[in-house]
Write a structure and sequence with these properties.
The longest helix is centred in the N-terminal third of the chain and has 16 residues. The mean pLDDT is 94. The protein has one domain: Peptide Deformylase (Alpha-Beta Complex). Helices cover 18% and strands 30% of the residues. It has a five-stranded antiparallel beta sheet. The protein is α+β, with helices and mostly antiparallel strands.
């Protein structure tokens, strides 16, 4: 297990589509462990493999007080509702913006053992699932801004976790 460096915008890797994983083996499990370590080190809520320069379809999410969720080849299969949220990203440090996200989502994928799972989430979990799966398609939250006016610089004193 290791903490890996997070790449930042405008690194072109962040705009590439990630590859599906055919087999969840030890290398994928090590990647998941490294992603969890990295996410915790930077006090994030979620992390997608492209954020550490690995173009594979893997995400991890850990909400405060909850267990870590790892999804391999995740897909959002259902969305409902819409809400405005303030969002940031570890790959766009120092900025936040107001975007629209779903109120509820259902995602499917494989767990760290390669078994099929579904995760239903609302609120922050729904937001994190959408945010991290966007990364796998080369999409950043700033692409969802209605206007550049919705993006603003934040200070070091912010306590809102980055997704």
């Amino acid at each position: 297990m290791a903490v890996r460096p997070i790449i930042t915008h405008p690194n072109p890797l962040l705009r590439q589509k990630s590859k599906r994983i055919r087999n969840v083996d030890e290398s994928i499990q090590r990647l998941i462990d490294d992603m969890v370590d990295t996410m915790r080190q930077v006090q994030g809520v979620g992390l997608a493999a492209p954020q550490i320069g690995v173009l594979l379809r893997v995400i991890v999410i850990e909400l405060p007080g909850e267990e870590v969720s790892a999804l391999v080849n995740p897909e959002i299969v259902r969305r409902s509702g819409e809400r405005l949220v303030e969002e940031g990203c570890l790959c766009v440090p120092g900025y936040r913006g107001e975007i629209k996200r779903s109120e509820k989502v259902t995602a499917k994928g494989l767990d760290r053992q390669g078994k099929e799972i579904r995760i239903k989430g609302e609120g922050l979990l729904a937001q994190a699932l959408e945010h991290e799966t966007d990364h796998l398609r080369g999409v950043l939250y700033i692409d969802h801004l209605e206007s550049i006016d919705k993006l603003y610089r934040i200070g070091e004193e912010t306590e809102t976790p980055e997704i």
